[in-house]
Amino acid sequence: MGDMIAYCGLDCKKCDAYIATANDDQSLREKTAKLWAKLNNAPILPEHINCHGCRSDGVKTVFCENMCEIRKCAMKKGVSTCGQCAKLETCSTVGAIISGNPSAMENLRG
After folding, report:
1. Residue 78 DSSP code
2. Cα–Cα distance for residue pair 55/99, rounded to 1 Å
3. What is the pTM of this model?
4. pLDDT per position as a tens digit, 11-49
5. Percent helix, strand and coil across the chain, each rounded to 5?
6. Dihedral of CA 64/68/71/72: which sign?
7. Which DSSP string corresponds to 82-107?
8. Of the candidates 36, 101, 39, which has an alpha carbon nearest to the alpha carbon of residue 62?
């Protein structure tokens, strides 16, 4: 499993924040900030849309860096991803991601 698979199993390479950062795409940052602000009812600005990946060194979005309970848990347990956790099948925290993104589970098992 590559470093671009997040703790939850999502593929960071497919995330608009990562894509905008990798390509220095200001238009995509603006579009993503607008969408995420609406979806989260939060003041998300284009300058918040910078990320090198959940498990990679470098900048992360404010959510991923400071607020993601999945990332916090995995780091506390010292696992590379939730795929290494014995509670994966019953975890409600990562379960919310997996239920809406079947490929996340495939990435965690792969």
Report:
1. T
2. 21
3. 0.87
4. 999 999 999 999 999 999 999 999 999 998 999 999 999
5. 60, 0, 40
6. positive
7. GGG-TTGGG-HHHHHHHHH-HHHHHH
8. 36
